[in-house]
Amino acid sequence: MNIDIQAINEKIQKESEFVEKITSEVSKVIVGQKYMIERLLIGLLADGHILLEGVPGLAKTMAVKTLASVIKTGFQRIQFTPDLLPADLIGTMIYDQHDGKFSVKKGPVFSNLVLADEINRSPAKVQSALLEAMQERQVTIGNETFALPAPFLVLATQNPIEQEGTYPLPEAQVDRFMLKLSVGYPDRDEELEIMRRMTQPAIPSASSVVTPKDILKAKGAVHEVYIDPKIENYIIDIVFATRKPKDYGLDDIEELIAYGASPRASINLTLAAKAHAFIRRRGFVTPEDVRSIGMDVLRHRIIVTYEAEAEEITAEDVVRKVLNKIEVP
């Protein structure tokens, strides 16, 4: 099979022109946080939802809101609380007294970018209502099923420091998120710039430079990004090393892993690597794309043993060892 890498590369360079427009427009409002903005774009382009962990005040909500305004898409922020009901999320049937009929009132999930703030504050039935919408890209209200708008991206946040009164997401549900990001504090210069910007009389805003149609077109182009069989096998080796560490010379972490990454990890690592190459304006995937995105795809898919927890070894430590050990093609 002859693949014209040069032709693919030229097409991707043309299709990805808007990436710089988006990042420069977002940076008018958001200082730093390049990692988070890039991962949001990867999620959008690879059709994968994102679980975001970080302490309050790191501009998570503002980043999503700004991105929505730059792309000119719908945006909804839902604050998850213990008394939230599935109907508050997906909508419900409303009885109309005038004509004696029930009509559908759609919930806030019918948007393009949905921010599920502190998702672990709500009980399982609310979490599962959202996760069904994420997986099936549709919602059933009464007897009717409604398709969700495209593009559709759920960004769920959780606070790592306060776990009282929370309902942790079950592992099977966490696995449905393509990426789990760990967002850190800005550095000193960035924080100084944030302080200056946010204490001005007029807070900066971003203009829309891209349409949802451009994003949908770009999503099609992402699938065309070429990935060499050697890199496909590299991805499989990484995922299998989390399941059978001994086969890859990782005997020291055999006792630390209770469950390795699922097949969703292989799929999502491939898609995310293609999207990473796309935003780098390349028509082919390199091992560096896989390594750059590997931690975000795997950190929530590996369950460590009690022994690992006792030794304060995290899933991130395990992923780091795997990425360092597996030979790069």
Helices and strands in order, then pairings?
Blueprint: H1 5-15, H2 18-26, H3 34-46, E1 50-53, H4 60-71, E2 75-79, H5 86-90, E3 91-96, E4 101-106, E5 113-117, H6 124-136, E6 138-141, E7 144-147, E8 153-158, H7 171-174, E9 179-182, H8 188-198, H9 212-224, H10 229-243, E10 257-259, H11 263-279, H12 287-298, E11 303-304, H13 306-310, H14 315-325
Parallel strand pairs: 1-8, 1-9, 2-5, 5-8
Antiparallel strand pairs: 3-4, 6-7, 10-11
Describe this protein with a few key phrases:
single chain; about 325 residues; alpha/beta; Rossmann fold; Helicase, Ruva Protein, domain 3; 2 domains; 5-stranded parallel sheet; two-stranded antiparallel ribbon; 14 helices; globular
What would a concise description of this structure say?
This protein has 14 helices and 11 strands. By secondary structure, the chain is an alpha/beta fold. The strands form 4 sheets. A 5-stranded parallel sheet has the order 2-5-8-1-9. Strands 3-4 form a two-stranded antiparallel sheet. It has a two-stranded antiparallel sheet with strand order 6-7.
